[in-house]
Write a structure and sequence with these properties.
The structure holds seven protein chains of seven kinds. By secondary structure, chain B is mostly helical. Chain B is about 60% helix and about 10% strand. Chain B has a three-stranded antiparallel β-sheet. By secondary structure, chain D is mainly alpha-helical. Chain D has two domains: about 90 residues; about 35 residues, no CATH class. In chain D, strands 2-3 form a two-stranded antiparallel sheet. In chain D, a hairpin with a 4-residue loop joins strand 2 and strand 3. The C terminus of chain D is likely disordered. The chains are: A mainly alpha, B mainly alpha, C mainly alpha, D mainly alpha, E mainly alpha, F mainly alpha, G mainly alpha. At the F-G interface, strand 2, helix 6, helix 7, helix 22 and helix 23 of F face helix 1, helix 4, helix 5, helix 6 and helix 7 of G. The structure holds sodium ion (NA) (2 copies). One sodium ion binds next to loops of chain B.
Chain lengths: ~90, ~160, ~140, ~140, ~120, ~775, ~500
């Protein structure tokens, strides 16, 4: 794969990661942070895909499967926190 | 019948995951799927008539991808430009869908499309509340949603 | 301030996702010796499946689904782990020496059975049992 | 040829992700951010996986990539729904530009009941199609 | 990358220790998580980091085709991660129970058992 | 011989049983043992007479040079005879004195143990065995002093005695080891027979100080004398006796025993004379100025111990002769007097001399033996005490140095002792009848047998001194002196300087005695003042000091503040590591980061910012979410650097961690800033310091790889031998399966802990 | 290879798993507790015999050759430690039959106890540095759970400190293992030792040695890292306290012995000097801490620290005799300290308190118990001819012979203060008259006779007999310690035993 493309993609993903993290730090509500966290999980899937292509190691895809299947649980956990009386603006 | 269907599905999922297309592997998947279903049997919802709907499914998928891209560009445009074009709000949409699976499927598809987000279903399952980003033309939105629901119910029923 | 936690959407979705996760976990367990996976990872995935279920349907319902106490899963896991030492000790070898058996299956296949696999199953059960104890226990203590 | 498609897929995926990230950073309130992030993020991941599937072209990898896409399609909306719902009901403030809120009035904070508006009798407070309006807070 | 990681690890250690020194037990637990991550990354870094060569053997081969990353530290870290998780689970339940019983999360108010 | 020494312990084990069986006559029954021991030891007299020493060998712990060898020569035989002989009467006496006491059985147990320990002490040839018995005497004496343990004073006095003697004992242990290091042997007879000049050895002074610290405390030399009179406050004169006649002589015994080896340095003699002389005077003075009969006797014991020490210090042939005679004389009359004192207290119901008087009518036999013993104490002819005193004067007059001072001290103390003897013998038995709580009669046979025999022996020895001399005393003198001695004991030496000194001191003593009632208030005032500044006050200061330092230290160190604990630990950990790094390795900063791709920089940045945010945010769940990001970043690191299994595990664990945290957190309060800005900056400084050290350590480690990793073995053999292609998993379940086995048990333990914390409610617990 | 080396680990693991499986039947768990701990003792004695016969017993787990496998190694020291584990385990198992509250039994006391022993035995027997970490964690988690079992306030407060500080220690341990692996590329301790010995410029090894020292120092409760111990050891139920007191800190000491005789001997002047001062201050601060306490178990807890100092002193002096002393001290202390805690449990049972001010009169009513206290208490204080005397004597003699006079002086002073504390307990609990405010005296006065009191006394008597045997018949024990020390001072023996002739 063309290293230029790979690098551009990496750069975009890195920027996305950074933006998402900024939202996570800013909040203001817990739900905002959780949304940011979910997005970061998605971006990690992107990383894994690009990485698999750039190195030719397909076994890394299993990581993406795991993220796809389980990462959303964190969101459900946070939601439960809110629903059971946790403070929303944390 | 339904159990058998799910069992085959799971066996196929197994084959897909393991990437080894062999009779043995399918059998293994079938056995493991059987055990999983054994665990799940209390809650497995009713499903029927799957096989007939393959063409409908393909048509739906294409429709969905089109909607997805269209909506994504709309959101992208608004995000990328400095002034907010959006008019967000929460609206209630009456549901045709009756069963839990239908509702789940519909709400998921709605949520997946940028610009609309399923918030909750009323306790009597007759009204779906969604958050929509672009309420400039609420009626058109409602029409689009109805169309989506129709197509979904078509393949589900 | 509390609110009603479950919805029809999450319930139904959980019933779709959970079997996928469980399948995936078994898959990860069995091929862990050759590809990424193994008892830990598989056990964690399986636990995630049950966590999802627990978050959707509550702790009590999860217990019913599991049928055995998480504690017993854990005990079974530990005993499996220890059982994998038995063949080596019986044959006078150092403990945990791997033993492999090829069980012929109808057709041209062989089922490769081994003490490392038994061991990995033990790990799987132990991890699952442990996390179930954590999560179900914590949820029950809230309710 | 496939190289180009892969490149497009990768760049497209990355663009969606970046869009999601910019959206989440820029948009003014929780639901609007979610419109950008949950979906675009999922889209990005799916595009990337499509790229992976094409790049490797190998049955195993394709199967896995498809599995990933399916899993994302199933789980992403659930997560979005759960968070959005929780965020909404916990009273996360909506953007001041929000034009209407038909849910607020159907929700009874005492009993935690959510009405459809189709209920017979006094339970129904406001008919769905003609009510709405902005939330007070 | 390893040299870069050295700095990252140092910062993680510092953050972990700062958090562990807080009086709030919740912060302390977060400090513990940070610390275990730092230790794991340290093992990873000092035993050499290799790009794109996971310690897997292709099907049918008897050995990896080229040089691969050192599998041993990976196994160690995996063990350490799982142990840290168990410990963490215990710790969070402990602080919760402690809070229920003692009624504060201020560590400075938990000195009855000393002296 | 071993049996003889240990028989006391054996009998002690059966004493409670025997007490129950024998009833009233238990004293007589138990006394059979020391009586037979006396006979047994006496049977060695012919072998020892000529100055020979018998070595009876038993092994114990040869690896540590500890043996159960017994050395029987004149000195140890004299002591053995005194211990078992007097012990016989003590056991009999106790049977009467403590008749009907509920804990008589416990008393006999301790007493027999004590006696056996004393025997072991004086007979041991091995320094460590000797020390073993030495410590046993301390402990048993503690039990005896505190016999009336429900009385707080008794407990305090017991502790005082124990603390002082054990403190000295520990020094003694060091001293004995030093001695062994100097001489190369732990065996007394080897040390005594070795020709090495210890006095010039580099460790001599240290050894001497340590050993004397032990002997001085044990033998109540000034300034450690205070515990002894307090020990006399012990409930029974029986136990008090032990502290007078035998146990405290353990120190004297050891000094005498080591004299031949240690006396070739000048320091030995000087120190002993100095402390001995001072002790003699102090003892004599306080004996004279006290009122309680046991106090009087106790201080006179202190005086005697001082005298004995002084004599060892003088070190001449004559001094050794005097030493042995004085030792025997003192044991005889002091034993008798204590038993008399007990009898008086038993019969009259009081211990205060001032309330007694004219008892010779009601207690004639008691009076007779009491007076005999007192005459010996006063050093009047024809009692053995007289011979001893004359020899004392002779010895100090001929002392190689400080002769005048020593003589003066001896005379003064002799004078005071006459007064003391008068107090003990004259005051209770003569003069006007006192007003006592009980109507006194002569003591019963059990209580009179001892005083009778001992005082008669004192008389006999005075009249016929050649008998004891030839039997053992000469041999004992030689043992102490280390060389053959040619001397001849006699009652009458003609009119010489010592005799005149005796006369002077006798007259002065009588004068003092008559003045006593008038002097008493003044003396009392002096004593009260002295007690505020004396060594005993020092002891209390030390004890207070210990408690004070202890509680101060605990307040400072174990202050209950977890943050402080951690701060100290962190500071130690990284301070030590950093210091070692700089001093042992040096600073090698490598700043080459150029080999990283920019997206790796991105991940590194994410790691850093998520960690920093997690630890700086005020939002709890913000922190938790940030930890989630950190988890993703760590997972990404693993993924990008070829660790898929790790990446997956990290992701799963991170998700579950977040779930656990949120499950728990909403029960907990939000983040509040509890610490002050100062504390925060302090902690931050320490944390940054730790971080810097870790950076340096990791950088240094990256530069070093002494050896190739052993992993190539795993990589090569996974597929062919372990039938697995995922090498990490093969390591986990096969190569290093034991780790994994342990790990699932760790998990199960965490689960069990959680289970009990969540489920075990307080009310379930205390049910039996 | 002899399989003797694996059973002391497998048996308690199996017992733990079975007890967990038999969760619902407390009766079965009790039976398993005694049976398996008896088996453990038997297995450990078997191991010791094998070791005495062959010098070393090793097992390459999974049949992979060393250094690639995890090797279990029993040298004399390890075998001794395992035997002590067996003795303490059996004593505790019996004592627990009566002392454990019902709720604790129902919520995993027995599995936790077994697994704690497994962790301890594993730590003693493993010849692999990372595996040591794993066993440490097993032990640690078991102790966490045991410490919190019961969930009382004091337990929670104590546990938070215990957990935090020990986790810090674990993290440092893990870090050190990582760094060491990064430098020498191996985990097998024999292999590490062999490779470390070839390094010419070992500066960084010393740095890593410091991390190990701190980590194990925390586990061992050395100055100034001991804070977690006095904060927690008196909080759980007494059998747990006793188990901790006897075994846990000694694992830290053992690890120090192992690392600083086998591996980190490249800079003895530096490392062992640090150890020496740490040892001295540990002795001193521990004993002073005890002097300030007025609660039975707190006094005992602080004394653990001070005694740890003696053991470390043995290591720090690093002469043959000193090491013998250290090993002897460990043997003596494990038995004696456990016993003292068990006795404190009996007085607690009699009078319902651990506070000295609420205790008294025990000597009057229960003289035999008083003797059972005196034996370990005087032994702890180093009074001859009990075990503690010889332990102290060896260490002090070694100190004097090594011309470390100041340190030896401190050791002697500490001995005195130890006696002071023991006597304080004796005077307050046993001699003193029962305070008037104590009214619940029926048990003390024997008016309530509990059914299974024998289970309280059997272990106490047994351990007291051990104390007496070590003291009165010290020669075999000394020879054992000497053998252990000889092996410790000749790491090549260990290396050869583990790696055989084949060197990679
Ligand atoms: Na816009
Ligand atoms: Na949507």
């Amino acid at each position: 794969m063309n290293p230029l493309i790979i690098n551009i993609v990496y750069m975009m993903l890195s920027a996305a990661l950074l933006f998402a993290f900024i939202r996570l730090t800013r909040g203001p509500s817990l739900a905002d942070r959780v949304v940011a966290l979910e997005l970061i999980a998605s971006i990690v899937v992107g990383y894994v895909g690009v990485y698999a292509i750039s190195t030719g190691v397909s076994s890394m895809l299993d990581v993406a499967i795991v993220i796809a299947l389980t990462a959303f649980l964190a969101a459900i956990g946070f939601a439960r926190f809110l629903e059971r009386g946790g403070r929303r603006d944390e | 019948m339904i159990g058998f269907f799910w069992n085959v599905m799971l066996a196929l999922a197994w084959v897909a995951l393991s990437g080894t297309f062999s009779a043995m592997n399918l059998l293994a998947g079938f056995i493991f799927g059987y055990f999983v279903l054994l665990v799940m049997q209390i809650k497995v919802p009713s499903l029927n008539g799957y096989a007939r709907r393959i063409p409908q499914v393909i048509r739906f998928v294409l429709f969905f991808i089109k909607e997805l891209i269209k909506a994504n560009f709309r959101v992208a445009y608004d995000v990328a430009t400095p002034v907010w074009y959006m008019k967000p709000g929460v609206i209630g949409v009456p549901l045709e869908a009756k069963t839990d699976v239908e509702i789940m499927f519909l709400t998921s598809v709605i949520s997946l499309t940028p610009g609309t987000l399923s918030l909750d279903v009323s306790d009597d399952k007759r009204m779906l509340f969604i958050h929509a980003m672009f309420l400039q033309d609420e009626d058109e939105l409602r029409r689009d949603l109805k169309e989506l629901e129709r197509r979904i119910l078509e393949i589900m029923r | 301030m509390k609110m009603k936690s479950n919805t029809v959407i999450l319930h139904t979705a959980a019933l779709f996702i959970m079997p996928l996760q469980l399948m995936f976990s078994i898959f990860l367990l069995l091929r862990g010796h050759d590809e990424p996976g193994g008892g830990f990872i598989a056990g964690l995935v399986a636990a995630s499946a049950f966590v999802l279920y627990a978050f959707s349907f509550g702790a009590e319902s999860t217990r019913k689904l599991l049928r055995v106490a998480p504690r017993d899963l854990l005990a079974a896991g530990l005993l499996f782990g220890l059982a994998s030492t038995i063949p080596s000790l019986l044959s006078g070898q150092p403990a945990l020496t791997a033993h492999w058996w090829e069980v012929p299956l109808p057709g041209d296949g062989y089922l490769k059975l081994s003490t490392p696999l038994i061991f990995d199953i033990g790990v799987y059960l132990a991890v699952l049992g442990t996390i179930m104890i954590f999560v179900v226990g914590l949820m029950e203590s809230d309710e | 040829m496939s190289e180009i498609i892969v490149a497009i897929m990768l760049l497209g995926g990355a663009s969606f992700m970046l869009l999601a990230a910019i959206g989440i950073l820029r948009l003014p309130d929780l639901p609007t951010r979610m419109h950008a992030s949950t979906k675009a993020g999922a889209m990005g991941a799916m595009f990337t996986m499509a790229g992976v599937a094409i790049y490797f072209g190998d049955g195993v990898v394709v199967a896995r990539a498809i599995a990933i896409i399916i899993f994302i399609l199933i789980t992403a909306p659930i997560a979005a729904h759960v968070i959005g719902r929780a965020g909404y009901f916990m009273g996360t403030p909506l953007w001041e530009g929000t034009v209407k809120d038909e849910l607020r009035d159907q929700y009874d904070e005492e009993t935690h009941k959510l009405y459809s508006g189709f209920e017979p009798g006094p339970e129904s407070m406001i008919p769905p199609d003609n009510g709405g309006g902005k939330r007070k807070d | 990358m390893e040299s870069l990681m050295a700095y990252v690890i140092g910062i993680l250690f510092a953050a972990a220790i700062y958090m562990m020194l807080r009086r709030s037990i919740v912060k302390m637990v977060i400090g513990l998580i940070l610390l275990s991550n730092a230790a794991n990354l340290l093992i990873f870094a000092v035993s050499g980091m290799k790009r794109g060569a996971p310690p897997l053997i292709p099907e049918g081969a008897s050995a990896p085709l080229g040089p691969v990353a050192d599998p041993l530290p990976q196994a160690l870290i995996l063990t350490a991660i799982v142990i840290a998780f168990g410990v963490l689970a215990f710790a969070v339940v402990l602080i919760r129970r402690a809070y229920e019983i003692v009624g504060t999360d201020d560590l400075d108010q938990m000195k009855d058992t000393d002296t | 011989m071993l049996l003889a020494v240990l028989s006391g312990f054996l009998l002690a084990a059966f004493a409670p049983l025997l007490t129950r069986m024998a009833g009233k006559s238990i004293g007589w029954l138990l006394a059979v043992l020391p009586a037979s021991l006396t006979v047994y030891f006496a049977s060695f007299i012919p072998q020892i007479q000529g100055g020979d020493a018998l070595l009876i060998e038993y092994t114990w712990m040869p690896g540590l040079d500890i043996s159960l060898n017994f050395l029987l020569d004149g000195l140890s035989l004299v002591f053995a005879l005194l211990i078992s002989g007097i012990g016989t009467f003590i056991l009999i006496y106790a049977g009467s004195y403590l008749k009907g006491h509920p804990n008589l059985n416990r008393f006999y147990v301790i007493m027999l143990c004590f006696m056996a320990s004393m025997l072991g002490l004086v007979l041991s040839d091995n320094l460590i065995t000797l020390f073993v018995f030495w410590e046993l005497t301390s402990i048993t004496s503690y039990m005896l002093i505190g016999f009336n343990h429900e009385d707080m004073d008794a407990r305090k006095c017991a502790l005082q005695g124990l603390f002082v003697t054990v403190a000295g004992g520990l020094a003694l242990m060091a001293g004995l080891i030093l001695l062994a290091v100097m001489t190369g042997s732990y065996s007394l007879h080897e040390i005594l027979n070795s020709s090495e000049a210890l006095g010039s050895h580099g460790l001599y002074t240290a050894a001497l100080i340590c050993i004397l610290a032990g002997t001085f405390t044990k033998s109540a030399q000034t300034p450690f004398h205070f515990w002894l009179p307090n020990a006399m406050a012990a409930p029974t004169p029986v136990s008090a006796y032990l502290h007078s006649a035998t146990m405290v002589k353990a120190g004297v015994y050891l000094m005498a025993r080591l004299n031949p080896a240690m006396s070739d340095g000048e320091l030995w003699g000087q120190v002993l004379m100095l402390f001995g002389g001072a002790t003699m005077l102090v003892g004599a003075y306080f004996a004279f100025s006290s009122t309680g009969i046991k106090k009087v006797l106790a201080y006179s014991t202190v005086m005697a111990l001082g005298t004995l020490t002084l004599l060892i210090g003088v070190g001449t042939e004559l001094a050794m002769t005097a030493f042995v005679c004085f030792l025997v004389a003192h044991s005889l009359y002091k034993g008798a007097l204590f038993m008399i004192a007990g009898a008086l207290d038993h019969e009259t119901g009081t211990k205060d001399i001032t309330r007694m008087g004219g008892l010779r009518h009601k207690m004639p036999m008691t009076a007779l033996f009491g007076c005999l013993a007192a005459l010996s104490l006063a050093g009047l002819p024809p009692l053995f005490g007289f011979i001893a005193k004359e020899l004392l004067f002779e010895a100090v007059l001929e002392a190689p140095f400080w002769s005048t001072a020593a003589t003066l001290a001896a005379v003064v103390s002799a004078m005071l002792v006459v007064g003391v003897a008068g107090l003990v013998a004259v005051k209770p038995f003569f003069g006007k009848p006192g007003n006592t709580p009980k109507d006194p009669h002569d003591a019963p046979l059990g209580m009179l047998a001892g005083p009778a025999v001992l005082s008669v022996i004192a008389l006999l020895f005075g009249l016929l001194p050649f008998i004891p001399q030839n039997a053992v005393l000469l041999a004992a003198m030689q043992a102490v002196y280390g060389q053959p001695i040619d001397t001849y004991l006699s009652l009458w030496h003609g009119i010489n300087l010592p005799l005149m000194l005796s006369g002077v001191s006798l007259l002065a003593g009588i004068g003092l005695l008559t003045l006593w009632p008038r002097l008493q208030p003044g003396l009392y005032a002096v004593n009260t003042a002295a007690s505020r500044f004396g060594p005993e006050a020092g002891y209390f200061k030390v004890m207070e000091g210990i408690t004070h330092i202890a509680s101060w230290q605990t307040r400072v160190l174990q202050n209950g503040v977890l943050g402080m604990y951690l701060l100290i630990m962190v500071a130690i950990t990284f301070g030590l590591t950093g210091y070692t790094l700089i001093t042992r390795y040096g600073l090698h900063l490598s700043l080459q980061l150029g080999d990283s791709h920019f997206y790796e920089w991105g991940i590194a940045l994410l790691l850093v910012v998520s960690a920093v945010f997690a630890s700086s945010t005020h939002s709890r769940l913000g922190s938790v979410a940030s930890m989630g990001v950190l988890g993703f970043a760590v997972a990404l690191t693993f993924i990008l650097f070829s660790a898929p299994d790790l990446g997956i595990t990290q992701l799963l664990v991170e998700t579950l961690t977040v779930i656990l945290l949120v499950l728990v957190l909403f029960k907990l309060p939000e983040f509040v800033n509890l610490s002050s800005p100062f504390e925060r900056y302090r902690d931050l400084t320490v944390a940054v310091f730790a971080g810097v050290v870790m950076v340096l350590v990791v950088l240094a480690t990256l530069d070093i790889q002494y050896f190739e990793s052993i992993s190539s073995y795993y990589i090569e053999n996974s597929a062919p031998l372990a039938y697995g292609r995922n090498i990490v998993n093969v390591i986990l379940v096969d190569y290093r399966a034991l780790d994994t086995l342990g790990e699932i048990f760790v998990l199960s333990l965490a689960a069990l802990g959680v289970l009990s914390m969540l489920k075990l409610k307080a009310e379930d617990q205390h049910k039996p | 290879m002899s399989s003797a080396v694996v059973y002391p680990i497998l048996l308690p693991l199996l017992a733990g798993a079975l007890s967990l499986a038999l969760w619902r039947s407390v009766r079965w768990q009790r039976t398993l507790g005694v049976v398996f701990n008896a088996a453990l003792l038997w297995a450990s004695i078997w191991l010791l015999q094998e070791v005495m016969e062959h010098g070393f017993v090793t097992m390459e787990m999974g049949s992979w050759p060393a250094p690639f496998s995890i090797v279990l190694v029993a040298d004399v020291l390890a075998a001794i430690m395992v035997v002590l584990t067996g003795i303490i385990g059996l004593a505790i198992a019996i004592y627990s039959l009566v002392s454990t509250p019902r709720g604790h039994e129902k919520f995993g006391y027995y599995p936790l106890m077994h697994l704690l022993l497994a962790g301890v035995a594993g730590s003693f027997l493993t010849g692999d540095i990372f595996n040591l970490f794993v066993w440490f964690e097993v032990m640690l988690l078991a102790s966490f759970a045991l410490l919190t079992l019961g969930g009382e306030r004091a337990q929670m407060e104590g546990a938070i400190k215990y957990v935090t500080l020990n986790l810090f220690s674990s993290a440092i341990f893990l870090t050190a293992v990582g760094l060491l692996y990064g430098m020498v590329g191996t985990l097998n301790m024999a292999d590490i030792a062999q490779k470390v010995a070839q390094v010419e410029d070992p500066g960084m090894l010393t740095v890593v040695a410091m991390l190990f020292m701190v980590s194990f120092g925390i586990k061992a409760a050395a100055f100034p890292l001991f804070f977690w111990l006095p904060a927690s050891y008196h909080t759980p139920q007494v059998a747990v306290s006793a188990l901790f007191a006897g075994l846990l800190t000694k694992v830290g000491v053992y690890a120090l012995f192992r690392m600083f005789t086998l591996i980190f001997t490249q800079d003895v002047d530096y490392t062992h000097t640090i150890l020496l001062w740490a040892a001295s201050l540990t002795m001193l601060t521990g004993v002073l801490g005890a002097a300030a306490q007025f609660e039975f178990r707190r006094i005992l807890s602080f004394h653990i620290i001070s005694q740890i100092g003696y053991m470390m002193l043995g290591l720090a002096l690093y002469t043959p005799l000193a090491l013998i002393g250290g090993v002897f001290y460990i043997m003596h202390h494990i038995i004696v300290k456990t016993n003292l805690f068990l006795v404190s449990g009996i007085t607690y049972r009699l009078l319902g308190s651990y506070e000295l001010k609420d205790l008294g009169g025990v000597y009057k009513h229960k003289p035999w118990l008083a003797i059972l206290f005196l034996i370990p208490a005087l032994s702890l204080a180093g009074i001859p001819p009990l075990s503690g005397f010889f332990a102290k004597f060896i260490v002090i003699r070694a100190g004097i012979e090594a011309e470390a006079y100041v340190v030896t002086g401190i050791a002697l002073l500490v001995g005195l203060l130890t006696l002071y504390s023991m006597i304080k307990i004796w005077a307050e609990v046993f001699w003193k008259k029962l305070p008037e405010h104590v009214t619940n005296t029926a048990r003390l006065e024997g008016r309530i006779k509990d059914k299974h009191n024998w289970a309280f006394y059997v272990p106490v008597v047994g351990l007291a007999v051990c104390t007496l045997i070590i003291g009165l018949n010290g020669q075999p024990i000394y020879e054992l310690a000497e053998k252990a020390a000889t092996q410790l001072l000749n790491p090549q023996l260990y290396i050869d035993a583990v790696l055989g002739g084949q060197q990679p």
